[in-house]
Structures are given as C-alpha cells and as structure tokens.
C-alpha cells in the first residue's frame, strides 16, 4: 500500500485525521464480482472521502464519529486493477494489484485450520502452489467480548509455496479446484481456531433469541462456576508435574480442561467474523463440530448450526449465499462424546436452502481426530460449490437418506443422490434395524436399484433403520461418482 500525504497546514490549526481503511481492504485483495464493491473506513468527522476503481468514482462524507462508506458499481471478473482512496488535504491511499473474482470465507475449528504443510499431499502439491489468481488472507485469532471493527492480519497475498504452507489445507484445495474449473480469481479468507465451539462463532443476540438454545448458556454457566476451582487445580497439577520430574518419575496425565476463554458464546463471531461482514462474499465453507460432540451438546447442534448460518447470512446482507460444510469424519473418541448424533444433526441442517455437506466418513482416521487427507475434503466442497453456486450439472453429494418403508420382514431405504449405488469392499456394512421397541441390532443390507433392502433375523417387523451409528463406524456405501453415503437414522 502506497501512501501519499500532502498536508498544507496553517499556523495554529490541526491536521485533518488521516483517512484509514480496514485491514481487509488492501493490496492484492480480491473483491467480489457482480456485486457492488464496498469500501469503508475512518477519517475526521465531516470530511469528504472518494474512491476510484475501474473508471468509476464515488464519494462519501464522514459522520460524527468519522465513519465513511461508499459502494462502487459491480463488474465482471478481471484485473489486476488499482484502487485509489482520496481523503481530505490531498491524502491518497493507492491499493495495487486488486483482482475481481469470487471471495470465500473458510471457517471452523482445527480440521479447517489444519495447515497445508501437514497434509498428506503437501510434498506433492506445495512446490506447485504459486498461483497469482488465488489470493489468501489469514485472520489472526481474536476472542472479543463485543463485535470488532477490524481484524488482525498480515494482509492478502498471492498463493505461493511459502504463503500456502501455513494456510488451511482444505481451503487451499477448494480454491485451487474452483480457480481451475471456473477460470476466475479466487480469494479465500481463513478465519479458524482449533478446538472451538459452534456457539463461539455465533452472534450472542442470535443465540439468545432462540429459547431452545438456553442449555448452551447453562453449560457455559457451569464452566464459569468451576473456573475458580480449576485455577487451583491447575496450580496443583503443575506442582505434581514438577515433583514427578524432580523425583525421576513418569509425568502424571490429567483430564482435558476446556478452554473457557475462547468457548464463550459469540466471542469468535465478535473478533473474527463480524469485521468481515461488510465485505461482500460468494459463500462460506465450514468444518467444525468435533468440539460440540459432547453428550450434552450434540443433540442441540442442528438448532445451533441453523441459527448460525441464518444469522451470518443476515449480517452479511448479500442474500442466502452458499454455505458448504463438512460432516465430521470417523474417530473412536470416547463414550463421553456422541459423534453419530452430531453427524445426524449436521445431516438435518441440509433442510436449509443453498447448503451442501461434504461427507468424510470414508477418509477419517479412527485414532487421529485430524486426518491428513485434506485434498478430498477440499475437492468435495468444491464439487458442491460447482453445483450450487456455479450451476454445473454434476453430482456433488453421496447418498442422503430420504425415507424408510417397512416391507414384511425387511425395510426398504430410499436415498437422494443414489444413482448407481455400490460398495467398494464386498458386502454392505454398518446397518442396523429395530422394531417398534427401538432396540437396534446388526442387520444385512443389499442394493435393490436406487434403494436398499435391510433386514435381520432378530427383528421380525423392522420399523427403523440406521447406518454408521457409531463414533468410528465401518461404512462402505457409495454412489456411482464414488461419493460416500452419509450415516443416518430413521428413528425420531
């Protein structure tokens, strides 16, 4: 960013406050094509600020607090362009290398945060990561008690091996696929924080307006009630560790302690999402849910997730943009977590318009919550974007449960996205049936056209069926495009 300030000051007068921009508006950025280009910032109250871009100029006068905002006409993809912001007393800010294309926000917890250099395919792909049409912006971690006006970041940069290595692997693979397929500049904003809750990414007012989400606040209250005791426990643990080391004994292991400081409802929305909402985007890709898999939290996830998606769309104010998310993968975890229920909650969120879900039940790691296959995750999200956002006539989802109809001693299962149902590893696995009593037992399944017939000798009249109902199930149902079926249950 080049600054050219020419201040003509009279004796005894004060210089006007310099015009400033939020950090998201900077050199090398991508602005959203086919939407008005929003530029905003601060200057002295009552001053006029103008912005010139692609031959158009718009002006605005600052209000009492010094805020200003202009919208320039939308345009097609292209660039690089130069943007000039002119403030009072001939203050100019010149932004170079600005592209017009598609902007996507990548958010969630550690599997979205997972850096490119850790991915299984990094050695093959990172050396070829240079691409001037892909621009990356990393939002630094910030939990805040109220909505912030700006983000902490080192700014936009063109994709390169050095820049991409610490960027979200899922987001980078997503961007690569979209840029190659759509031939437009792609900007990705990485706003992620490992080990975080869905409610932390949701605006506090939106949570409070839904009475069904009250248990989240009760859980938060219990955490804060025990915080004082936890601080003493932490001191005691440190002493135990020091004593063990001094005596040459094994270091004791302690139960995991939840991160109270970043798990508060709304804290990450305030610090890492709210400042982005004035910036028009194409859509969002999301990978989160593992931290909401605790027994008390998992049943609330659909309601929470829907609230978050709907509110993000309202706050951005650019319509019901595509919200594409990843269903959590297979992981053994513990009996204190219910990953099956969490996946079912994510599946039900597809009831919202313009959403899609990338199923990853086939590419997880049962003993590692951070599977290293991120290229398939990014590409599956990109397939969804190509279908929902870019209008390509492609299959973008694996089989999704639609309904189950009892037929004698079996139950027929119907799916969407079920063309050419198949299994990659012999007989179908992971299916269970239950009678009216709701007690599930293992069952056999066979493919019958675009449906399945599921039965068990132990259940004469099956009423319900489920698939992949475990933290780390063995699942092998796919459609003809090689996309895996989502785990599901037909039980209410």
How would you characterize the overall build of this protein?
The protein has 492 residues and is an alpha+beta fold. The chain folds into two domains: 101-397, 3-Layer(aba) Sandwich (Rossmann fold); 400-489, no CATH class. The protein is built from eleven helices and 24 strands. It is globular. Residues 2-16 have low confidence and may be disordered.
Gyration radius over CA:
26 Å
Taken as a percent bin, the fraction of beta residues is 25-35%
CATH architecture type of the largest domain: 3-Layer(aba) Sandwich
**Would you tell me the structural class of the helices and strands?**
alpha+beta
Please report the distance between the alpha carbons of the first and last residues.
57 Å
Largest sheet: 12 strands, mixed
The CATH topology of the largest domain is given as Rossmann fold
The CATH superfamily name of the largest domain is: SGNH hydrolase
Mean pLDDT: 93
Instruction: Domain count, please report it.
Output: 2
Low-confidence stretches: 2-16
- Helix % is 10-25%
DSSP strand tally:
24
The top-level CATH class of the largest domain is Alpha Beta
Which of globular, elongated, flat, extended, rod-shaped describes the shape?
globular
Number of helical regions = 11
């Amino acid at each position: 960013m080049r600054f050219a300030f020419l201040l003509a000051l009279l004796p005894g007068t004060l210089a006007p406050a310099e015009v400033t921009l939020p950090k998201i508006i900077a050199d090398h950025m991508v602005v959203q094509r086919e939407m008005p280009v929003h530029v905003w910032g601060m200057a002295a109250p009552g001053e006029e600020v103008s912005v010139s871009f692609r031959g158009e100029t718009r002006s605005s006068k600052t209000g009492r607090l010094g805020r200003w905002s202009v919208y320039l006409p939308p345009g097609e993809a292209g660039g690089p362009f130069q943007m000039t912001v002119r403030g009072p007393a001939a203050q100019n800010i010149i932004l170079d290398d600005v592209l017009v294309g598609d902007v996507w926000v990548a958010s969630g917890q550690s599997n979205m945060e997972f850096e490119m250099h850790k991915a299984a395919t990094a050695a093959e792909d990172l050396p070829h990561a240079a691409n001037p049409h892909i621009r990356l912006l990393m939002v630094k971690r910030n939990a805040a008690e109220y909505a912030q006006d700006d983000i902490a970041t080192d700014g936009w940069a063109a994709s390169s091996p050095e820049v991409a290595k610490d960027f979200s692997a899922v987001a980078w693979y997503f961007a690569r696929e979209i840029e190659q397929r759509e031939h437009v500049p792609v900007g990705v904003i990485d706003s992620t924080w490992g080990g975080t809750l869905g409610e932390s990414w949701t605006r506090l007012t939106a949570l409070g307006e839904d009475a069904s989400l009250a248990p989240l606040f009760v859980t938060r209250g219990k955490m804060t009630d025990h915080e004082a005791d936890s601080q003493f426990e932490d001191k005691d643990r440190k002493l135990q560790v020091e004593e063990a080391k001094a005596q040459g004994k094994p270091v004791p292991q302690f139960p995991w302690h939840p991160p109270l400081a970043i798990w508060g409802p709304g804290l990450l929305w305030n610090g890492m999402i709210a400042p982005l909402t004035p910036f028009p985007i194409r859509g969002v890709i999301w990978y989160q849910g593992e931290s909401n898999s605790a027994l008390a939290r998992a049943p609330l996830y659909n309601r929470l997730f829907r609230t978050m998606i709907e509110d993000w769309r309202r706050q951005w104010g650019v319509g019901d943009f595509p919200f594409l998310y990843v269903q959590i993968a297979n992981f053994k975890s513990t009996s204190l977590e219910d990953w099956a229920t969490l996946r079912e909650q994510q599946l039900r969120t597809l009831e919202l318009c313009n959403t899609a879900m990338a199923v990853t039940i086939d590419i997880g790691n049962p003993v590692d919550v951070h599977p290293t296959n991120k290229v398939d995750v990014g590409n599956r999200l990109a397939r969804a974007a190509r279908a929902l956002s870019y209008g390509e006539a492609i299959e973008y989802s694996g089989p999704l449960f639609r309904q189950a109809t009892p037929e004698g001693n079996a139950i027929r299962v119907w799916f969407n996205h079920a063309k050419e149902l198949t299994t990659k590893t012999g007989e179908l696995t992971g299916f269970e049936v239950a009678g009216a009593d709701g007690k599930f037992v293992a069952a056999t399944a066979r493919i019958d056209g675009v449906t399945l017939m599921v039965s068990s000798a132990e259940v004469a009249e099956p009423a319900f069926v489920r698939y992949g109902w475990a933290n780390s199930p063995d699942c092998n149902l796919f459609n003809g495009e090689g996309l895996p079926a989502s785990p599901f249950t037909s039980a209410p």
